[in-house]
Amino acid sequence: MTPPGRPCRLVVCRGCCCGTAKKRPGVDHEGQLERLRGLRDGDGREVPVRTSTCLGICFQANVVVVQPSSAGRERGGRPVWIGGFTEDRLIDDLDTWVHDGGPGAAPLPESLAERVTSKDAEKPKKDKKAKKGKKEKKEKKEKKKSGRP
Ligand code: FES
Fold first, then answer.
1. What is the Cβ-side half-sphere exposure of residue 36, based on CA atoms within 13 angstroms?
2. pLDDT averaged over 10-residue windows placed end to end, the chain, 149 residues
3. According to the UniProt record, where is the region Disordered (predicted)?
């Protein structure tokens, strides 16, 4: 018998950066999306996957949001945003987690917990020293061009 309510659902960002070789080279983005589309929960229900446009935290690409099942939500589960979702082993861990119930129903695997983020995550500021270094290089280059010592 199928349990009542909705299963966990996934929102997989496929905007300007997530899922692109330009932002995350060396990742089989299409293959990963296919694998995510094949996930099933512990009751054998298909885990619906929706792709979305940019979720606004591109520096964390690839971003996946795990929505709780109805049962998980009743137990306090809320959507979990995961950034840096690029490794195949993370799909294995997500598969296990969703199979066990997902948000609100099962503990978050450590590998995913390390990558939890949010829609309000702020991009880390660039190191000022690095910026200064660039400026110094530019000045040095200009001096060289002008022939000044
Ligand atoms: S493209 Fe995924 S957060 Fe921007």
1. 28
2. 83 97 95 97 96 97 98 97 97 97 97 96 78 70 70
3. 95-149
- The verdict on pTM exceeding 0.85 is no
Find tokens 């199979």 and name the residue: 99
User: Which token pair is 41?
Assistant: 């929960």
Dist CA 59 CA 11 (whole Å): 17
Q: What's the Rg (C-alpha) of the chain?
A: 21
Q: Which atom of ligand 1 is nearest to the CA of 16?
A: 1
Which of 10, 11, 12, 16 best tests ligand 1's pocket when mutated (most atoms within 8 Å of CB)? 16
Closest-CA residue, ligand 1 atom 3, reads 58
Residue 94 has which token pair? 């997500």
